[in-house]
Amino acid sequence: MPKINAATVAEHRAQQRAALIQAAVDVLVEQGAAAVTPAAVGARAGLARSSFYQYFPSAAALLAAIVEEAFTAADTATARALTDVHEPAAQVDAFVRAELHLAARGAHRPAKALMQADLPPECLARVHELHRQHYAPLGEAITAMTGATSALTGQLVGGTVQAAMAAVEQGGDPDRVADRVLALLHHGLTPATDE
């Protein structure tokens, strides 16, 4: 029986699965989705290639797990930030600050790499669906602030938030970047006259 490095077999399996996912994220971000193979991920995680198949039936299944876990973690962080925040402008603030702190931790790296990868259509569709779901609370707050029902305002705010995330990923302080981007957004998010 292989040696386990945890109190229980279940904990050991969870640790091994997490190690494979982290190794796959690193390979994905550094080399792209095509490089996420059982051999490369197993080697990166320090596991035999055959061990990979005890946790995932294929590289595609591993990519799907990365997608789901990345968005679940981001959704949890933004939901926590929005707990007991009911005023739309405060919701925008809380969402943006949570996103920029996630960016500072590198939490968006897997989703960003996957959105740029040459993935099967169903996998790419799932990434886009999860992305839309993740940004839904921000869109709802924007609509409540502006009365705008068109997607244009949401797209413009989303682009601004993406630029702020890029600034943080390049070393910007997330709080300082948040202060600046929120000043811009609050100045621009006024009741819509016509979109």
What does this structure look like?
The chain is mostly helical. It has nine helices and no strands. The chain has two domains: 1-56, Homeodomain-like (Arc Repressor Mutant, subunit A); 59-188, Tetracycline Repressor, domain 2 (Orthogonal Bundle), CATH 1.10.357. The protein has helices spanning 9-31, 38-45, 49-52, 59-82, 88-104, 109-115, 121-146, 151-169, 174-188. The chain is elongated and about 65 Å long. The chain starts with 8 loop residues before the first helix and ends in a 7-residue tail after the last helix.
Characteristic key phrases:
mainly alpha; Tetracycline Repressor, domain 2; 195 residues; Arc Repressor Mutant, subunit A
CATH superfamily of the largest domain: Tetracycline Repressor, domain 2
Strand content is: under 5%
What is the architecture of the largest domain at the second tier of CATH?
Orthogonal Bundle
**CATH class identity of the largest domain:** Mainly Alpha
Tally of helical runs: 9
Radius of gyration: 19 Å
What would the principal axes of the Cα set say about the shape? Answer: elongated
The major β-sheet equals: none
How far is the first residue's CA from the last residue's CA?
Answer: 65 Å
In the CATH hierarchy, the third-tier topology of the largest domain is known as Tetracycline Repressor, domain 2
The count of DSSP E runs of length 2 or more, i.e. the number of strands, is 0
